[in-house]
Amino acid sequence: MAETREDEATSTQRTAAVGRQRKQIPALYFTIALLVVVGFAFYLGNRNFLSLYNINTITSFAAVLLMVSLGQMCTILIGGIDLSVGGLISFVSVVFVVTIGRFGQWTYPLCILLGGFFGYLNGNLLTRIKIPSFIGTLGMGGILVSLAYLVSARPVNVPSATYKNLNLVNGELFGVGNVLWIGLIVLALFYVLLRFTASGRNVFYVGSNIKMSWMSGIDITKTRNFAFVLSGVGAAIAGVMVSSVRFGGDPSVGEPYILNSIAAVVVGGTALTGGTGGVLNTLFGALLLSALANGMNVVGIDIYFQQTILGLMIIISVVLTFDRSKTPIIK
After folding, report:
1. Alpha-carbon gap, residue 276 to 209, rounded angstroms
2. Distance of CA 19 to CAs 16, 257, 323, Å?
3. What DSSP string runs through 267-298?
4. Rounded Cα distance, 226 and 203, in Å
5. C or N: which end of the chain has fewer Cβ atoms within 10 Å?
6. Which residues contact 206 (CB under 8 A, 6 or more apart)?
7. What confidence category does residue 6 fall into, taking pLDDT thresholds of 50, 70 and 90?
């Protein structure tokens, strides 16, 4: 019996040592390595994959995905999730197109404020009404999709007379599309907020250990609401960008971004258990997903098999980043 206990203790110590050794390698490095491997593999399959035109296509798609993923990252960092981002993108998309002719450039900040408002509502569903974020945001997403269809039951195009108002997104600066500039600016803003402000750092603390954060005097309610507001803002920016690029709004355009945003965050190395990850992780996660989606089409992989590859990538990423210290040990 004593020998069996000694073997179990040795096995436990070995497992812990392996876990510590693996944690010494940041998850971001795995993501970057996967991005390089995937890029090289697709390049071997089709040399046009690394052409200037195709790289611009990948980065432009990644910029839009990055906007919603940065917001999604904030809710995941606190140990929650936001399933309403798809509905919010759809709602903002049609509202933006319907109002751009009346309000002009003012439509941009109005739509962003709209996203922040619904993000704040999501946060209060969790913090005040005590509804788990999975359920609360799922319900809010359904409400927003309904509102989108009420604003416009079918896709609506931007009037040609107001095309000039879309130059903020569709224009160029120094030969680089504004979509990429917007992506870089928002990326920098999220980085500064999360790394150099008290509210942003509290997002990591609450996600790492909510009880210790509360005992340290951190306002849990305020921090969670802040994370969901950022998620709403990110989704709203994505909705505006999608509408501008397409020159039109669609009440169903946001649906694919629900799972894609979660996948980009997880693939980037932000742990679903919260507290671990960050802006750079999400950036490379969005780039990896965009490269995957584009590359699989470029080399001609069957569309029905593409989801299998994406699913495997998500599973591998979760295995590498999941924090098992926050889950009970079941024998």
Report:
1. 11
2. 5, 33, 10
3. HTT--TTSS---HHHHHHHHHHHHHHHHHHHH
4. 8
5. C
6. 78, 79, 213, 218, 220, 223, 224, 274, 275
7. very low
Amino acid at 44: L
Residues 240, 186: Cα–Cα separation, whole Å = 13
User: How many angstroms from the chain centroid is the CA of residue 36?
Assistant: 21
Q: What is the pTM of this model?
A: 0.87
pLDDT in tens, 223-269: 999 999 999 999 999 999 999 988 888 898 999 899 899 989 988 88
Token pair recorded at residue 213: 């954060």
Q: Cα–Cα distance between 109 and 112 in angstroms, integer?
A: 5
DSSP labels, 126-187: HHTS---HHHHHHHHHHHHHHHHHHH-SS-EEPPGGGGGGGHHHH-EETTEEHHHHHHHHHH
- Give the pLDDT of residue 214: 87
User: Coil, strand or helix: which one is 46?
Assistant: coil
What pLDDT score was predicted for residue 293?
Answer: 87
Report which of 294, 306, 302, 301 is spatially closest to residue 57, judged by C-alpha positions: 294
Domain map of the chain by residue range? 63-154+170-276
| Cα(2)–Cα(187) distance, integer angstroms | 56
Q: 49 with 42: CB under 8 angstroms?
A: yes
**CA-closest candidate to residue 186, choices 282, 96, 43:** 282
d(CA 261, CA 242) in angstroms, rounded, equals: 15
